[in-house]
């Protein structure tokens, strides 16, 4: 199994495999399945730049021709963003993808697995996967939730994506003992909307509080990660009453077209992009950048603690 570090991450690596600088992992499914080309490459580059400006090193994770990449060179990033039909790689697909020399974009779950295996503690994304609406019939529950229960990485996201059933998602996280630390407010953020009717399980008001929790989590030897739920900035949000009818419309179409399994989330994100005339993407970009900023602060504070 081959692990390839890009030059930037490699420069921050010590001989023993630890890092001389704080690192922030970034996923690649958001590039290949979450945003259309060429916006995806532009955003991927800008998010990396935000991490650098905030004093950390970005490590975008993907599988290219069977090798695990920790950080992508710009040409690799561009090629991945342009390639159609890249496989969406979650826990279930990762070994097969590597073993068969294939190229794949890593989801939250797969990015966590890779980050943990190379000693990266902090990871920024847009929104995590969760329990889908109608899960009592379709059994669609994202592998991201089980990964948060198993793998010790702190994931910064703007909450579960609003296309999901947020109360059920919160129940699964609680059952699995995943700490959900909501940054600066008393309700769960809901991806495009900064608030929801679901109360925050745990509220934090500073990066120091988040890092203190990470340290005690480790000291106790607890399994699994932490979810830091970071609300989208108010100026960029789409309120729930605007987005909800569009989500429902997209869900009905997905059902009619019998979209299922891995295709559900990319289909819904794309349909909501069309129904909001692009506004959902603008919000998605704003929240990812906001998460990259917070993740960099967490990574720095954790690194120097
Ligand atoms: N966040 C975004 N856009 C995305 C995703 C996250 O802003 O496209 C991706 C992540 O890779 C996440 C995946 O793991 O959606 C969830 O897919 P599923 O519901 O099939 O588990
Ligand atoms: Mn699913």
Structural topology:
Elements: E1 3-5, H1 7-11, E2 23-26, H2 29-32, H3 39-53, E3 57-64, E4 67-70, H4 74-82, E5 87-89, H5 91-99, E6 104-106, H6 108-117, E7 122-124, H7 135-138, H8 143-150, E8 154-157, H9 166-175, E9 180-183, E10 202-204, H10 207-219, E11 226-229, H11 240-256, H12 264-275, H13 279-303
Parallel strand pairs: 1-4, 2-3, 2-7, 5-6, 7-8, 8-11, 9-10, 9-11
Antiparallel strand pairs: 3-4, 3-6
What this model shows, in words?
This protein is of the alpha/beta class. It has a single domain (3-303), classed as Indigoidine synthase domain (Indigoidine synthase fold, 3-Layer(aba) Sandwich), CATH 3.40.1790. 46% of the residues lie in helices and 14% in strands. The chain contains 13 helices and eleven strands. It has helices at 7-11, 29-32, 39-53, 74-82, 91-99, 108-117, 135-138, 143-150, 166-175, 207-219, 240-256, 264-275, 279-303; strands spanning 3-5, 23-26, 57-64, 67-70, 87-89, 104-106, 122-124, 154-157, 180-183, 202-204, 226-229. Strands 1, 2, 3, 4, 5, 6, 7, 8, 9, 10 and 11 form an eleven-stranded mixed sheet that branches. Strand 3 and strand 4 form a beta hairpin. Helix 3 (39-53) packs parallel to helix 13 (279-303), helix 10 (207-219) packs across helix 13 and helix 11 packs across helix 12 (264-275). The protein is globular. The two termini are 33 Å apart. The mean pLDDT is 97. Bound molecules: pseudouridine-5'-monophosphate and manganese (II) ion (MN). Pseudouridine-5'-monophosphate (PSU) binds next to helix 2, helix 8, helix 12 and helix 13. Manganese (II) ion binds at residues 140, 142, 264.
């Amino acid at each position: 199994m081959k692990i390839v570090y890009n030059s930037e991450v490699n420069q921050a690596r010590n001989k023993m495999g630890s890092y001389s600088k704080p690192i922030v992992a970034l996923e690649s499914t958001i590039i290949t399945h979450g945003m259309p080309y060429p916006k995806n490459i532009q955003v991927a580059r800008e998010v990396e730049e935000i991490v650098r400006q905030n004093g950390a090193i970005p490590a975008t994770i993907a599988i290219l021709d069977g090798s695990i990449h920790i950080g992508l060179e710009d040409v690799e990033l561009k090629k991945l963003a342009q390639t159609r039909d890249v496989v969406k790689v979650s826990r279930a697909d990762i070994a097969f993808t590597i073993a068969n020399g294939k190229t794949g974009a890593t989801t939250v779950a797969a990015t966590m697995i890779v980050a943990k295996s190379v000693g990266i503690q902090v990871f920024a994304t847009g929104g995590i996967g969760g329990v889908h609406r109608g899960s009592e019939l379709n059994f669609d529950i994202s592998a991201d939730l089980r990964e948060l229960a198993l793998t010790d990485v702190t994931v910064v996201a703007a909450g579960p994506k609003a296309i999901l059933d947020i109360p059920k998602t919160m129940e699964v996280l609680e059952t699995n003992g995943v700490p959900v630390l909501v940054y600066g407010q008393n309700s769960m953020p809901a991806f495009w909307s900064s608030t929801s009717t679901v109360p925050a399980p745990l509220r934090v008001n500073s990066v120091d509080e988040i890092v203190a929790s990470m340290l005690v989590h480790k000291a106790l030897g607890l399994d699994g990660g932490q979810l830091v739920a970071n609300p989208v900035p108010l100026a960029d949000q789409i309120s729930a009453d605007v987005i909800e009818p569009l989500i429902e419309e997209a869900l009905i179409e997905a059902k009619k077209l019998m979209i299922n399994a891995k295709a559900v989330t990319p289909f819904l994100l794309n349909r909501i992009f069309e129904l909001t005339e692009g506004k959902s993407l603008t919000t998605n970009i704003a929240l990812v950048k906001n998460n990259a900023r917070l993740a960099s602060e967490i990574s720095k504070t954790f690194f120097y603690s």
